C-alpha cells in the first residue's frame, strides 16, 4: 500500500532518505466531507522524521494525453476567414452608427448600440472592435441623464431595459454613471414595478437589472434592492419559461453573476444562447456573422491553448513534479483559469507564467502546511531569502528540486517582464515571494504549536499566505502594458485593491477549506478564530458573518476597480481583478484547489479541450 511514493525520480529530484528508509507507517483516516477524504499520515523512520500529508487526488491530466491533443484550427485558412468576418462585422457596426440610417432610427439608436456592444463582449470577440465600442458608448453617454435613457435619443420616457444595460456597460467602461437612475423605476411604495403577467420584454429588462446590480458600489442601497427584486423575479420566471435561449441565459447569469463569471466560459455559453436567439438584433444586421466569428475565434484560440498546454505539461514533467505525490498537481487547471480571462494570442507569457507560478505556490503551500518539518521550513525560508543556487546545499533532497525550479521560473519570468517593462522587476517578485514565504512560515508555526491567533491577526497574515500577490504580480508584468512604479503601487500590495482582493479570497477560501484543514490538525481558520472570540456563536453563525464580510468587500472591490476618479486606467487593473474572479470561481461549490474532478474538470473540457462545433 503506497501511501508515499518512493519510486525513482527524474534526475532533478531525489527522495529524502528518511522516506526511503521508513520502517513503519501509521494511518488515521476520517471523512470530512462528501467530496474529499483526507489522510493524516505519520511516517516514522530511523531518523524520527514525522510528516503529515493530505490525500489529495492525483493529477487528472496525463502528459501523454496532453501531448496527443490535436486540432485543425491553427491552419491559415481559418485565420483568413476570421479576418474577412471581422471586416464584415466592422461594416455592420459602422452602418448602425449612422444617424437615421436604414437599420437605426431616433427611437431605437441607444438600445441598438448597447445591444451590439453587449453581444460582442459576451461572445468574446471585443478585442477586434475597441474603437467601435468606444464610439458607440460615447454616443450613448452623450444622451445619459438623471433618469437614464430610453430606447432611442428621441425617447420621451426612460426605459428600464436600456437604462439597466446602459448603467452596467457604461460603468464597466469607466463612465461616471450613478445608480440613482434606478430610483425612477420604482412604484410609490418604493418597490420596483412589474406587471402581473411576465412578458418576454419585461423579463429581459429585469435580467439586465440583475446584471447591473452586480456592479454595485459601497452604499448603493438601490443596487442592493435591485438585486433582491430581480433575483426573486428571475427565479420565478425561469420556472414558467420553456427551454430556450432566454431561459439558458437567465440560468447562466443567476449561476455565475459577475464576480464568479469567466469571460471564456461566458463566451462558450453565449455562443449557444446567441445561436438560438440573437437578442435585440434584427436579421438585417447580419447577426449570423457575429456568431460565425465568435465560433472561429473560440476554436482558433483553442488551437493556441493546446500548443501552450503541451509546453506547460512538458515543463511540469521535465521539472520532476510528476514524480512528487504529496502536493496537489493543478498546472492544467491554473492554465485553464488564465486562458479563461485572457485570450489575446500575444499573451502566452501571461498564461504560462500564471500557471507555473500558481502551481509552484500550491506545492509550497503543501510543503509549509503539511509535508515539511519545522527545521526544513526554516532552511527553505532562509534559502528563498538568500536567492542563490548555492542555498540548496543545506536543504533536504526533496526541497532542492523545488527550490531550483522556483528560482529558475521566477528569474525567467523576470526576464520576460524586463522585455515588456524595459526595466528589471526581479526585486518586486522577490519581495512578494519573501512576504508569501514569511506568512506561510508563521502559519506553520501556528500549526506545530497549536496556537490560535486572533481573527484580525489571522486574517492579516492569511491575506498574504493565500498567494494572490505572488501569482498576480509577475504574470501581469509580461503583458506589454506599461506598469510604472506608481501604477504598481495601486495594484500590488499594499494597495487597497490588492488588500480587498486578498481579504475576499482568504475569507471565502476558509469557508470551503476549514473542515479539511482541521482534520489535518490545522487549528487556525477564519471560522475557528471568529468562534474563539465569540464563544456563543456556532459554525453557521461564523460562516454567515464571514459571508456578510465578503459581500461588503465585493462592493468595495468594484469601486477600487472601476472608480472613475482613479489615476490608474481600468485596463491596467483588469488582469489583477480578473485573477481574483478565477479563484472566486474555484470556491463557488467547494475547495476547487483541492477537489478539481467535478466542476473544474468540466471547465477544462469546455474551455480548453473541446472546440465549438461550427
From TrEMBL:
Residues 60-253 form the Terpene synthase N-terminal domain. The keyword Electron transport does not apply. Keywords: Lyase, Magnesium, Metal-binding. Pfam families: Terpene_synth, Terpene_synth_C. GO terms for molecular function: magnesium ion binding; terpene synthase activity. Pathway: Terpene metabolism; oleoresin biosynthesis. This is 2-methyl-3-buten-2-ol synthase. The gene is Tps-MBO1.
Amino acid at each position: 500500500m503506497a501511501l508515499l511514493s518512493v519510486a525513482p525520480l527524474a534526475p532533478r529530484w531525489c527522495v529524502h532518505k528518511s522516506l526511503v528508509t521508513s520502517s513503519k507507517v501509521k494511518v488515521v483516516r476520517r471523512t470530512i466531507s462528501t467530496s474529499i477524504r483526507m489522510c493524516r499520515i505519520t511516517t516514522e523512520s530511523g531518523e524520527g522524521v514525522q510528516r503529515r500529508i493530505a490525500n489529495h487526488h492525483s493529477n487528472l491530466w496525463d502528459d501523454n494525453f496532453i501531448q496527443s491533443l490535436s486540432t485543425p484550427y491553427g491552419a491559415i485558412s481559418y485565420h483568413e476567414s476570421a479576418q474577412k468576418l471581422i471586416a464584415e462585422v466592422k461594416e455592420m457596426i459602422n452602418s448602425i452608427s449612422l444617424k437615421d440610417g436604414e437599420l437605426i432610427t431616433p427611437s431605437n439608436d441607444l438600445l441598438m448600440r448597447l445591444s451590439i456592444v453587449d453581444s460582442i463582449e459576451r461572445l468574446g470577440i471585443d478585442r477586434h472592435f475597441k474603437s467601435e465600442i468606444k464610439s458607440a458608448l460615447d454616443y450613448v453617454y452623450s444622451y445619459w441623464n438623471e433618469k437614464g435613457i430610453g430606447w432611442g435619443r428621441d425617447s420621451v420616457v426612460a426605459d428600464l431595459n436600456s437604462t439597466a444595460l446602459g448603467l452596467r456597460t457604461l460603468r464597466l467602461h469607466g463612465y461616471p454613471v450613478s445608480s440613482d437612475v434606478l430610483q425612477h423605476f420604482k412604484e410609490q411604495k418604493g418597490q420596483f414595478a412589474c406587471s402581473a403577467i411576465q412578458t418576454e420584454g419585461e423579463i429581459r429588462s429585469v435580467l439586465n437589472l440583475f446584471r447591473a446590480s452586480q456592479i454595485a458600489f459601497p452604499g448603493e442601497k438601490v443596487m442592493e434592492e435591485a438585486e433582491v427584486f430581480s433575483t426573486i423575479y428571475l427565479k420565478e420566471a425561469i420556472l414558467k419559461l420553456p427551454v430556450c435561449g432566454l431561459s439558458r441565459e437567465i440560468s447562466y447569469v443567476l449561476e455565475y453573476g459577475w464576480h464568479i463569471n469567466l469571460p471564456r466560459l461566458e463566451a462558450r455559453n453565449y455562443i449557444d444562447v446567441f445561436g438560438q436567439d440573437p437578442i435585440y438584433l434584427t436579421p438585417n444586421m447580419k447577426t449570423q456573422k457575429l456568431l460565425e466569428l465568435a465560433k472561429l475565434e473560440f476554436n482558433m484560440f483553442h488551437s493556441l491553448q493546446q500548443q501552450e498546454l503541451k509546453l506547460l505539461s512538458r515543463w511540469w514533467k521535465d521539472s520532476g513534479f510528476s514524480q512528487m505525490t504529496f502536493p496537489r498537481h493543478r498546472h492544467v487547471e491554473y492554465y485553464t483559469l488564465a486562458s479563461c480571462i485572457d485570450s489575446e494570442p500575444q499573451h502566452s507569457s501571461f498564461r504560462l507564467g500564471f500557471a507555473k507560478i500558481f502551481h509552484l505556490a500550491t506545492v509550497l503551500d503543501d510543503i509549509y502546511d503539511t509535508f515539511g518539518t519545522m527545521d526544513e521550513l526554516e532552511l527553505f525560508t532562509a534559502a528563498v531569502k538568500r536567492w542563490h543556487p548555492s542555498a540548496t546545499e543545506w536543504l533536504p533532497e526533496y526541497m532542492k528540486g523545488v527550490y531550483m525550479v522556483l528560482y529558475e521560473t521566477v528569474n525567467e519570468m523576470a526576464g520576460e517582464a524586463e522585455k515588456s517593462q524595459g526595466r528589471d522587476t526581479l526585486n518586486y517578485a522577490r519581495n512578494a515571494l519573501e512576504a508569501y514565504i514569511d506568512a506561510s512560515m508563521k502559519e506553520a508555526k501556528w500549526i506545530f504549536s497549536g496556537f490560535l491567533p486572533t481573527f484580525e491577526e489571522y486574517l492579516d497574515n492569511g491575506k498574504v499566505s493565500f498567494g494572490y500577490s505572488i501569482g498576480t504580480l509577475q504574470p501581469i508584468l509580461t503583458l506589454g502594458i506599461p506598469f510604472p512604479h506608481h501604477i504598481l503601487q495601486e495594484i500590488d500590495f499594499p494597495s487597497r485593491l490588492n488588500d480587498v482582493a486578498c481579504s475576499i479570497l482568504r475569507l471565502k477560501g476558509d469557508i470551503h477549506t476549514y473542515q479539511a484543514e482541521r482534520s489535518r490538525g490545522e487549528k487556525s481558520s477564519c471560522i475557528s478564530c471568529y468562534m474563539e472570540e465569540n464563544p456563543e456563536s456556532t459554525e453557521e453563525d461564523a460562516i454567515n458573518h464571514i459571508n456578510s464580510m465578503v459581500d461588503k468587500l465585493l462592493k468595495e472591490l468594484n469601486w477600487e476597480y472601476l472608480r472613475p476618479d482613479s489615476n490608474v486606467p481600468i485596463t491596467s487593473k483588469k488582469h489583477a481583478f480578473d485573477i481574483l474572479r478565477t479563484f472566486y470561481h474555484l470556491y463557488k461549490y467547494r475547495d476547487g484547489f483541492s477537489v478539481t474532478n467535478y466542476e473544474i474538470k468540466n471547465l477544462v473540457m469546455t474551455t480548453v479541450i473541446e472546440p465549438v462545433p461550427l
